[in-house]
Each structure stands twice: as C-alpha cells, then as structure tokens.
Amino acid sequence: MKKGTLLNVCLALLFLCCNQPKTGDENLLNRQNINTFSIIIHGGAGTILKKNMTAEKEAAYKAKLEEAIRTGFDILKNGGSSLDAVEKTINIMEDSPLFNAGKGAVFTHDEANEHDASIMDGKTLNAGASAGTTMVKNPINLARAVMEKSPHVMLSGTGADTFAEEHGLSIVTPDYFYNERRFKSLQSIKDKEKTELDHDTKVSFYDDDIKNSKFGTVGCVALDKNGNLAAGTSTGGMTNKRWGRIGDSPIIGAGTYANNNTCAVSSTGWGEYFIRAMVAYDISALMEYKGMSLKAAAHEVIQNKLTRLGGAGGIVAIDKDGNMVSEFNTTGMYRATMNEKGEMNVEIYKED
Ligand code: ASP
What is the pTM of this model? Predict the structure, then answer.
C-alpha cells in the first residue's frame, strides 16, 4: 500500500472511531460538565407561605430534605448510579410523615391510602411505574422493580400489590399509613364539600396543618459520575380522590422523565394539568427539538404552557451537564440541591 493511501486509511479509521455513538462511560470522558454529578429533590409545591409556617415545622421540613439529599449525594459521590441515588433519596421522604408519599400519604374519599410512583433511567429510556397500590411501604421501590423485573412499564391496584409481594418488597398493613393530620384534612375537605356549592377541586389539596393548600408529592433527579440521568416521583395523590383517580406522578412523560441526551425531570402539582401538558417530557422535547437550555425549557412549560391551562405546581430537573433547575408557579416548593462540591441549598418559599 502506498504511503499516502495508508495515511488516508488511518485518518478515516480515526474519524470513524471519534464518531461512534457514545456509551455512558465514554460520555464521562467527552462531556463538558458543569457538575460531574449533582442531585435535586422536591417535597411538593403549593401555596406555602412563611406566615403560615411555624419555626419548628420549617426546621423539620428542612432537616428531612437535608437528610434525603445527603443520602443520594453520598451514593453519587461514591460512584453509585443515579437510579440508586433517586430510589434511596425518595425512600427517606417516603418514610417521613411530613410528605404526601409513603408513610405521609393523603387519604382517599373512602379513607384509604392509594400510592402512585414512577422512575426512569435516562441511559436506556427504561421506565417503571405503579398506581393505586395500598400495601407497599415504599412505592418507588415497586416502580423500580416493575422497570427491572417485569416486561411492563406500569402496574396498578391489587395486581401491582401482588407483584410487590412476589418480589419480596416491604409490605405493610393499612394502619402503617394512618396519620391524624392527613385524616383531619380529609374530614375538613368533606365538610367543605357539603357546605360549598361551587366545588373548587383545588380544595382537595388543602392542608389544615399549615393552613394552606399544597401538593406534597416527593421527587428526585440525579446525574451520576457516568453521565447517567435518572428521575423518580412518589405520591399519595390528592386528598379525597375517588374512583381510582390516578394523577401525573406515575405517568412517564408527565410526572417523571429522563433522557441522557437532554435532561431528567420530576413534577409536583395539580396532576390533571401535568398530564394534559405532558410537563416532564415537554421540557425534554423543547431541549431536543428546539435546542433550548433546561432553564428556558422549564420556564416555558411551567410559566407559560401550564399556567395558561390553569395548572399549578412545579418541577425539579437536571440537564446532561449537571445544571440544576427548579421552576414553579406556586408560592412555594419544598426543594433542595447539592452539587459535586457538596454545596447544598435547601429552600421552601419563592423568595428564598
Ligand atoms: N401531582 C400529584 C397528583 O396530582 C400531587 C402532588 O404533586 O402533590 O397526584
């Protein structure tokens, strides 16, 4: 082979190698990261006003948010996967009565607790979800099991509970989810329903305890050191829900979405609107098809699209470069962020 031809062959091979689709590990070498890993969480958005919050309550929320995010941060710092970070972080919030998920789930019209959850892996676009379960202690674990151990994306009701039992997940009796403040919220909403002719469905999110209405779903989004994004969301849904109502939280694309090429998102708010606006996927799509930044895409979807529809709530999200964004159109959202340096921000109100 002539010298010139050999050189051309080498150059062609080099070009081919450089343009191969990147695996997760190669991503690590090629990304221009702002953060090589990062994590963001929410504990629900809504009419959360400082004047209605006691110092003790505020401290309790902040402490639990901090405990949760540190759990995920440590996993990421030690090289763990974003999926593990999301699952374990959400477990901390599910096990706390402060949030409307797991132990703190709100009551249905029939005085039961029905849980919805979902999780998505941005590397493979695999996803898992469960809706309307009644005896699984940590619904996010069930969502992950559906993703990894079944050929399906979403299971519901008694079938999902059975699947959880068969896969050895923690099962509890209904009294585990009993929470007096949630039960009182249900009673006060039912009383209002009787007295108010114009039924404002927003009343279903009323939280007597902090004298305001809010959405207390929990969610987590993480980027790991391998460049893999993941998102998860877990909720008890809305107080006084009935007829097997399912919100956005277990709907992939509405409540949860993750794609390594764009971003990962977890939503909280008035679920019906988040489903109609396909909030989580829409943010990713604006980035993918319109080249928008995460910040601009999240602003467009929450402040323009969702708000125009009449929906309330917000999202937390991370893009493939580790940029973290929280966007909401309510007066507050329980939220926290941690970057690769371990710098933490825990916030509740809009003006924080
Ligand atoms: N999005 C949830 C639902 O509609 C509620 C929440 O975010 O708190 O079920």
Answer: 0.88
